[in-house]
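Support request from a user on the community tier.

User writes: "When I paste my structure tokens into the form, the page sometimes reloads and wipes my input. The last time it worked, I copied everything first. Here is what I submitted, just in case something in the input itself triggers the reload:"
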């Protein structure tokens, strides 16, 4: 598993409520864990400007193995066990290198974009 890899996995919210199938993208490794942004969505256009500020638009979504234009929710990160992902996840594809770079920059600039929205 490499940075930018996209997997389809079950994301558990709590034991009672179960989970939901999500497209995820790896952003980092942490010992035997993998830091994933656990929500890639095609539902973007009806969100508020405040919420849209946390969604990175995947430029080469088709090349990444996605079926339609999609966005990464940068506020959805969690660490998962690498073995669980490899055992239960389904590999979808990988972000293009320029999308990985742009996503990193998007995450770095999030606070300043949010501050600009609050001034409006």
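"...and here is what came back when it finally went through:"
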């Amino acid at each position: 598993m490499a940075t930018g890899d996209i997997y389809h996995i079950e994301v558990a919210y709590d034991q009672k409520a179960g989970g939901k199938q999500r497209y995820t993208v790896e952003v980092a490794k942490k010992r035997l864990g993998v830091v994933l942004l656990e929500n890639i969505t095609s539902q973007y256009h009806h969100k508020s400007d405040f919420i849209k500020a946390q969604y990175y638009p995947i430029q080469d979504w088709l090349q990444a193995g996605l079926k339609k234009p999609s966005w990464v929710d940068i506020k959805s990160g969690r660490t998962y066990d690498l073995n669980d992902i490899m055992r239960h996840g389904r590999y979808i594809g990988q972000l293009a290198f320029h999308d990985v770079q742009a996503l990193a920059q998007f995450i770095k600039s999030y606070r300043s974009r949010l501050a600009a929205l609050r001034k409006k």
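Agent notes: The reload is a front-end session timeout and is unrelated to the input. The two ends are 41 Å apart (CA to CA). DSSP finds four helices and seven strands in the chain. Escalated to web team.
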